[in-house]
Design a protein that fits this description.
heterodimer; A: 327 residues; Arc Repressor Mutant, subunit A; Four Helix Bundle (Hemerythrin (Met), subunit A); 3 domains; 4-stranded antiparallel β-sheet; 3-stranded antiparallel β-sheet; 6% strand; B: 410 residues; alpha/beta; D-Maltodextrin-Binding Protein, domain 2; 2 domains; 8-stranded mixed β-sheet; 5-stranded mixed β-sheet; 16 helices; 19 strands; 34% helix; globular
Chain lengths: 327, 410
């Protein structure tokens, strides 16, 4: 987890949102009759809608807002008739205490930007070694350096970047050795996890996938790989094992997506293998599926190593984000 | 339709000439080959000539821009696994039986050395799951055509040229040539000239020179960098013309060489000598592949063209620039006896011999280094190779090449 010195950073996000809205209602900045909508509030708070929903429920229970004959909630207890005020909450100068703002920023923003940065930092590694400069990443994302440090800490925790001897953040290069090691690990742990998962596999989803493979020409190996993980392997009742599998696949999947962006054509052989695999999972003893998964991974590793070689002849300009400096 | 667009009085429809588009490199895309192919086949043949790396890139990523792809086996990992090519059906290859065991089995006899790295047999046959391997099957990835055993060239005034002189790849790092050494800038080729030199000089040992580890690659680049700093390298080159210029200007005493470059030398011909290294040769094998998009009549044309390639004329043209063909018996019909004797049998040239474009390539009385084909082909120690760590090796190699260039300018 990312740790912050701000005590509020440990508080659930919906509590922070509740706090901000309550203060603004009580101070009158949010006037009686103002229509509160989830989406705009989530945007202001730089968060998803889920904590906003929880915050609105708390305010409703506290009698500070009420339902009405329209979308959202109205500010006020609803005991007196008010005309709904439909304005964008982003136009109001909401009072947001610094501590709360900081906590929301730290908690919200780094998550908000993290996935994109992770994808960029992981996929650049086929193009060699890169340095990440904190200030450039902050400018690129339009966030504070505090947020950037949280993002970088998370990337390091996931094994995607490291500190050089001179204390620079370094990503890559992705070597054949790293790829081979990751696939070797996959060959050991994924079949084992699949066996553990057998009683918990979402068989209805597997059936649906088998139907789709036959009928949907747009289905991709990438999609099927994720589906195999989510519906089958990750159903293993061992959180540590599933976490390890996810972490190990992170870099491989990001590079796969980068190759597809570079124009790697749809790969029918791999789709066929997933079809066989899902068929074995749904209709046969799990051992046969585990054996097949092991073979599938060893074949995939060979294909993957060959495909990485093309990157050496592709000019890399423009293929990665501006904050990544080739070394 | 009740109304025909063609009235009985209109001119006969203009049928454009059929056309085959060939993407390749300077190894095989020679004008005499194209002209004769067009005459023999009755359709146009367009040549698109690219340097090695651009050629691979285009072949992999834009297969719709060509019909036939002429390149080397060692780049198949790149192009084949990007799904750009389609299998070649051996039942449609007329002279497959005439193609040498060098490609089919890996060596011309069971006692001949196979060589490390991407021996063409390892990439030849299509295996289940779309992989490439040496187990025979009905389909192949690339029709083997032209090949050669490469070495380095040296200045006999520096290294000597008597019967006692035993050229070694170590000369590419030799103090006697300090400041006058050049390598070919291609990470699947020049990289191995450097690796052979490092092993031959005793500086480094690789567990498998054809599939080096990251640590081994780093060790090699460290050695090259040390020598660069000490001023050993004068430059690198990418095209035969640049290699010839380096020799003619007297800027190199030893460097990577390609066979046709010797034919281009003029004043330096007397002292710049092709080596037959004691350690053996670095070989390569070219061929032709089919673009993924080909179907029907276009596919038929591509097969016609590939069969024509193995029918003798093209093999003879290749021989005149020092390259061998995969079915030499057919090429022999198109070569003068003196040409065959010099290029394939290792005999002294009975007369001056000319290159593919008609200029003087070999002077009367000279003899090909390394002797006859059978002797040279038995001494292959490594093939041009795209290793597992190619993506890494190519980047560190590029950095080295850039530093050599910057150093040369300073």
């Amino acid at each position: 987890m990312i740790r912050s010195s701000n005590p509020l950073a440990q508080e659930p996000r919906y509590e922070l949102i509740t706090r901000v809205l309550r203060e603004n209602i009580l101070s009158g900045i949010l006037p009686a009759g103002f229509v509160l909508l989830e989406g705009p509030i989530a945007a202001v708070m730089q968060t998803s809608r889920v904590p906003v929903q929880a915050a609105l429920r708390q305010l409703l229970e506290a009698g500070l807002i009420h339902r009405f004959d329209g979308r959202g909630y109205l500010v006020g207890d609803g005991k007196t008739e008010v005309t709904p005020i439909r304005r964008d909450i982003r136009d109001l100068a909401l009072e947001v205490p610094d501590e709360v703002d900081d906590a929301l920023q730290t908690r919200g923003t780094w998550r908000h930007v993290y996935d994109q940065v992770e994808e960029e930092v992981a996929s650049c590694q086929i193009f060699g070694e890169f340095r990440i400069v904190e200030t450039e990443l902050a400018d690129h994302l339009g966030v504070s350096r505090t947020v950037v440090r949280d993002v970088l800490a998370r990337l390091q925790e996931r094994g995607l970047i490291r500190k050089s001897a001179s204390s620079h953040w370094i990503a890559g290069p992705l070597t054949a050795r790293t790829v081979s090691e990751k696939f070797e690990l996959r060959g050991i742990v994924e079949p084992a996890a699949l066996r553990l998962a057998a009683p918990h596999i979402r068989y209805a989803e597997v059936e649906a996938l088998l139907d789709r493979i036959g009928t949907d020409p747009g289905i991709t190996p990438d999609f099927l790989g994720d589906a195999l993980l989510e519906h089958c392997i990750a159903q293993a009742q061992n959180t540590a094992l599933v976490e390890m599998i996810r972490g190990n696949r992170l870099l491989l999947s990001a590079v796969d997506r980068a190759l597809i962006r570079l124009g790697l054509p749809r790969d029918e052989d791999t789709i066929e293998q997933y079809q066989t695999l899902f068929d074995l999972i749904s209709r046969h003893p799990i051992d046969s599926a585990c054996e097949y998964l092991r073979d599938h991974l060893s074949i995939t590793a060979r294909r993957y190593l060959a495909r990485m070689k093309i990157v050496a002849v592709i000019p890399d300009a423009g293929s990665f984000a501006a904050y990544l400096s080739p070394q | 339709m009740t109304h025909s667009a063609q009235s009985p009085l209109s001119a006969p429809p203009h049928l454009p000439r059929r056309r085959l588009r060939v993407l390749g490199t300077s190894i095989t895309l020679l004008p005499p080959v194209r002209e004769r192919a067009e005459a023999d086949l009755g359709f146009d043949v367009d040549f698109e000539l690219q340097d090695f790396l651009s050629c691979q890139r285009q072949a992999a990523m834009r297969p719709e821009t060509y019909d036939v792809y002429e390149q080397c086996f060692h780049n198949l990992d790149i192009v084949w696994f990007w799904g750009a090519l389609q299998p070649i059906d051996l039942s449609r290859i007329t002279d497959w039986d005439g193609v040498s065991d060098l490609v089919k089995l890996g060596g011309i006899s069971k006692y001949a050395g196979r060589g490390a790295g991407d021996a063409p047999v390892k990439k030849l046959y299509i295996q289940p799951g779309g992989f490439l391997g040496s187990k025979p099957s009905r389909h192949i990835s690339m029709l083997p055509t032209v090949h050669n055993m490469d070495s380095f060239g040296f200045d006999a005034r520096v290294f000597g040229n008597g019967p006692d002189v035993r050229p070694s790849w170590a000369w590419l790092l030799d103090r006697r040539a300090k400041g006058r050494i050049a390598l070919v800038d291609e990470p699947a080729i020049g990289f191995f000239d450097a690796a052979l030199a490092a092993e031959a000089s005793g500086e480094l040992q690789f567990a498998d020179i054809g599939n080096m580890t990251i640590d081994e690659i780093n060790a090699l680049m460290k050695l090259l960098e040390q020598r660069r700093v000490e001023g050993y390298f004068v430059g690198t080159w990418r095209e035969g013309g640049e290699a010839a210029a380096l020799v003619e200007q007297g800027r190199v005493a030893v460097q990577s060489m390609w066979s046709p470059v010797y034919g281009k030398l003029t004043a330096a011909r007397a002292h710049f000598v092709e080596s037959a290294p004691v350690e053996g040769y670095r070989a390569w094998h070219g061929g032709a592949s089919l673009s993924r998009h080909l179907r029907g009549a276009e596919l038929d044309m591509a097969y016609e063209y590939m069969n024509w390639w193995l029918s003798g004329f093209a093999g003879a043209v290749m021989a005149r620039q020092g390259y061998y063909i995969s079915n030499p018996a057919r090429a022999k019909d198109y070569l003068a006896p003196e040409e065959w004797a010099y290029w394939y049998d290792g005999a002294a040239a009975a007369r001056d011999l000319h290159g593919p474009s008609g200029d003087l390539a070999v002077t009367k009385g000279s003899r090909r280094a390394g002797g006859p084909y059978v002797d040279r082909v038995r001494r292959i120690v490594i093939w041009n190779t795209v290793m597992d760590e190619y993506n890494y090796a190519a980047r560190v190699w590029d950095r080295f090449v850039r530093r050599v260039a910057e150093g040369a300018e300073a």
